[in-house]
Design goal:
alpha+beta; six-stranded antiparallel sheet; four-stranded antiparallel sheet
């Protein structure tokens, strides 16, 4: 026997055995490429299967849903139907608000589509009502999507001061983060000048509301004045406006003999509450961060964490900005657990190999080829534009047990050749050449099985597109490693040497038992086939009883509670009901299972509230999120006056995900549909299979209907026009239309909608 290299016989293995540096370099290149890709590859929770989505939001304050739908939503829908790449459009019209969600076809550039949508909306402004406060906004996100990160600003400062900080330095810093579609402020309350008119004093002077509104509109004058040119310089001119105070507003002249203070009472007060925000019972200003439909949650979370740390040092003493919920925390924890699973799987594979091969030298070779194949797969992921995510990492977990197969086949055959008396180098070359096509065929077969998974249709198919390709990459690299690195290591480590030196030993009890079982199985084929058939029947029956879902239940560390009142519910009444929900959550805070409760009251036109319940770290609690949600949901059904339900969010960002079973009752008769739906909900409430069933929208909205008598209107010289020519003014500082006057029971209040100078 000789350990000298055998003479090459033309096989590929002979090339690598005779030139071991060549084989080692090839595998080092694979390893280095994978390590370099680890720095550059995109890391996210799930594969990038998000449908490109645009949202168009319009605020039409004071309008009932029917008016919003007729004058805003339908007009915008007709115009946006010409948007290139449009796949699906749905809209929701509520009191004072219109939301249109547009799903774009696959492959559409969301940035280009957003710009085109903005142009379409701009060209449609003339067809919209004149008293819409702000122009419609177009964002690259799903308007119904949950915020991925929620922040709260609170501390030893007035709500007006917190609002100024939130609208200023905090908003400016967060809005620069790449991937964020929108930063929505909740519970902000700036000061405003409130002018309460004395109607008898006003009428006694022969004045009207419009005289006061005209005087207030002239408070700000930003008329361009041009510039002055001299021989040395050019000076721009502007109107100098002094800081506005209560006395300034009161001294505004209405005519030659009357000032505002003569007919009105001027005060500087906080703006009336539209949305209330509390964190653990303390008033705060909340900020909801919504990602773009193609944004990366994990990278946004990391950037927001850096921004929060930077902002905290710039905030006044006693004021703090902190995160109340962050999807990135769950993503990082999920990825860490999968990485631990890969390490554990690798260790288990090595132990199992050693248990059967009983040779440290033989075990060392597959133990080296496993990390080379797995790390090299990361390079393939980066080259194809995929990402490291939960699905691709799960593919690597599965691949850990597969990439070692080729190396084991090669090593086993090399050991067999060594037992036949061949030298170490000759056995490495001959053993590898003999199984070369077997390894190639095995790899091709596995790739042919996994690659078709990547072409499944729909969003679920998009999730598994990376799964199939990553497995194919891994097994392909494992065959390359097995045919290049394994024979080189076998030639130097000589795993068959221990087999040659081992003395013959009697067969153990495990071997004898195995031989006995195999002998009887071959002698009784009908029994074996019958047992296999029984397993098939049991498996088929069990498959029919298993529940099905796109993704399993997840413990994301927080959940949402939504409380919705009737259409005529006031924010004050809704706030009292939310207090009851917070009382239900108080015992969980005291036990430590819940760390924070953030309540946002007054969203959705003022009739809905969201409570974000943040749970303690997974390692510090005994119950899962789903168990807590189920328990709390039963208690929420007892809160009167509102429909309250708890739900979790979902990884795939599927619209409506986590909200349970949803279906629609359609028809042409609204009254009949309403009656049938209410009867259906009542019947479902009696069935234990349904937990807290409820309507998604109110069937009836309380409203006053004002009808104008044309004859009487003509007697007084009035028209039925919606807008008085002088009743709408533009805010020169904000560049938006606003309503200057409104009626109430005590008279009239005229509001300067621009914020007070501080």
């Amino acid at each position: 026997m000789s350990d000298t290299p055998a003479k090459p016989r033309g096989g590929l293995a002979d090339l690598f055995v005779s030139r071991p540096i060549f084989g080692i370099v090839i595998n080092l290149l694979i390893l280095i490429a994978g390590l370099a890709a680890l720095v550059a590859v995109d890391v996210r929770e799930m594969p990038d299967v998000d449908q490109p989505v645009l949202s168009v939001r319009t605020t039409y304050e004071g309008a009932v849903p029917a008016t919003v739908d007729r004058e805003v939503t339908q007009v915008l829908e007709d115009a946006l139907s010409a948007l290139e790449g449009l796949s699906y459009m749905e809209s929701t019209s509520t009191t004072g608000s219109s939301r249109i969600t547009i799903d774009l076809s696959e492959g559409t550039d969301v940035d280009v589509a957003a710009n085109e949508a903005r142009e379409i909306v701009s060209s449609t402004l003339r067809d919209l009502p004149d008293d819409i406060e702000d122009d419609p906004t177009v964002t690259k996100s799903d308007s119904n999507a949950d915020a991925i990160i929620r922040l709260a600003l609170m501390g030893d400062a007035s709500l007006d001061a917190l609002t100024e900080l939130a609208e200023g330095v905090v908003y400016d810093r967060l809005s620069t983060i790449d991937g964020i579609a929108e930063v929505t402020l909740r519970g902000e309350q700036p000061n405003e000048f409130r002018v309460t008119l004395d109607m008898p004093a006003l009428l006694s002077r022969g004045m009207t509301l419009f005289d006061v509104s005209d005087a207030l509109a002239a408070l700000r004058d930003d008329t361009p004045l041009g510039s002055l040119d001299s021989d040395a310089q050019t000076l721009a001119l502007r109107v100098g406006n002094a800081n506005v105070t209560v006395d300034t507003v009161g001294q505004i002249p209405i005519d030659a003999n009357t000032r505002v203070s003569d007919v009105a009472f001027v005060r500087l007060l906080p703006e009336e509450d539209a949305v209330l925000t509390r964190v653990n019972g303390q008033t705060a200003v909340g900020m909801d961060i919504t990602r773009q439909s193609v944004g990366n949650t994990l990278s946004i979370s990391e950037d927001v964490a850096v921004a929060v740390a930077d902002l905290q040092s710039a905030l006044p003493d006693g004021v703090r900005l902190f995160v109340t919920s962050d999807d990135g925390t769950f993503i990082r924890g999920s990825l860490t657990e999968v990485m631990k699973s890969i390490a554990l799987a690798t260790g288990i594979v090595v132990v199992v190999i050693f248990a059967f091969l009983r040779s440290p030298r033989a075990v060392m070779i597959p133990a080296v080829t496993i990390p080379v194949s797995l790390v090299g797969t990361v390079a393939a992921i980066w080259l194809t534009g995929f990402s490291v995510n939960t699905i691709s990492l799960l593919a690597l977990v599965l691949a850990t047990g597969m990439v070692v197969d080729d190396a084991i086949v090669v090593i086993e055959n090399i050991v067999r050749k060594r037992k036949q008396g061949m030298g170490a180098f000759a056995a490495a070359a001959a053993g590898t050449n003999e199984v070369f096509f077997a390894v190639i065929s095995t790899t091709a077969t596995l790739a042919a099985v996994f690659i078709p998974i990547s072409f499944l249709p729909g969003q679920a198919g998009g999730v598994f597109s990376e799964f199939g390709f990553v497995l194919a990459f891994a097994v392909t690299l494992s065959s390359i490693t097995a045919l290049t690195l394994a024979p080189v290591l076998a030639a130097f480590l000589d795993p068959g040497k221990s087999a040659l030196e081992a003395t013959a030993k009697p067969q153990g009890w495990a071997g004898r038992m195995f031989d006995t079982v195999m002998d009887k199985a071959i002698r009784m084929p009908l029994v074996v086939l019958g047992a296999a058939g029984a397993f098939v029947i049991v498996a088929a029956g069990a498959a029919g009883t298993l529940p099905s879902a796109i993704t399993p239940d997840e413990d994301r560390g927080f959940f949402l509670v939504q409380a919705r009142g009737a259409s005529d519910t006031t924010i004050d009444y809704l706030d009292t009901q939310v207090d009851q929900v917070e009382e239900i959550l108080t015992p969980y805070q005291e036990s430590g299972e819940v760390t924070s409760v953030q309540s946002i009251v007054g969203v959705g036109g003022g009739t809905s509230a969201f409570i974000i319940v943040r749970l303690d770290d997974w390692s510090n609690r005994d119950r899962s999120q789903s168990a807590l949600v189920a328990e709390i949901s039963g208690k929420l059904a007892r809160v009167p006056g509102v429909q309250a339900s708890a739900r979790g969010t979902n990884s795939l960002n599927i619209r409506g995900g986590g909200q349970g079973l949803q279906f629609a009752v359609t028809g042409k008769d609204i009254a009949a549909m309403t009656t049938a739906t209410e009867a259906l909900v009542a019947a479902m409430a009696q069935d234990e299979a349904f937990l807290n069933p409820q309507l998604s929208n109110d069937a009836v909205q309380a409203q006053y209907e004002v009808r104008v008598d044309p004859e009487m209107a003509s007697v007084f010289g009035l028209t039925e026009g919606r807008d008085h020519p002088d009743h709408r003014r533009n805010d020169p500082r904000q560049g938006r239309r606003h309503r200057l006057c409104r009626r109430d029971r005590d008279g009239c209040e005229c509001r300067a909608r621009w914020p007070a100078d501080r």
